[in-house]
Design goal:
single chain; 130 residues; 2 domains; 4-stranded antiparallel β-sheet; 24% strand
Length: 130
């Protein structure tokens, strides 16, 4: 482990936000670390602390969002959700069950915001699966 740490010392130092030495990863210290992480409170605190260095927030434009739909044909038997049904097929396959896929994105970056599967024939009691 110490050899690996030596090769990745710079990346580890940047990711953890503190100076890393190869001696920090001796067998004895690794054993102590694994014992500590095994306790729920320590593991949660460690994930929270590491996550603060890994998550970035960007100011994205929010003026324009787009939504697009398409039908997806499948070889599938009926189920209790009534999500799959026969309908007008853009793929020229009216013999196959299908559902609609809905995707919303943020322009101009194309960042996906939300995706949903909806029934082909929307009724007042249609179910949406997100």
């Amino acid at each position: 482990m110490r050899d690996w740490v030596t090769r990745h010392q710079r990346a580890l130092t940047q990711a953890l936000g503190c100076s890393i030495r190869d001696t920090d990863f001796s067998d004895e210290r690794m054993e102590d670390l694994l014992d500590a992480i095994g306790r729920a409170a320590v593991g949660e605190a460690l994930e929270e602390q590491l996550g603060q260095h890994l998550i970035r927030v960007y100011a994205l434009p929010t003026d324009t969002a787009r939504i697009a739909t398409t039908t997806v044909s499948v070889f599938h038997q009926p189920d209790q959700t009534n999500l799959l049904d026969y309908g007008h097929s853009k793929d020229q396959r009216p013999d196959l069950r299908q559902f609609k896929e809905v995707l919303s994105t943020l322009d101009p970056v194309g960042l996906p915001l939300c995706s949903a599967m909806v029934a082909v024939h929307l009724k007042s009691s249609a179910k949406i699966v997100t």
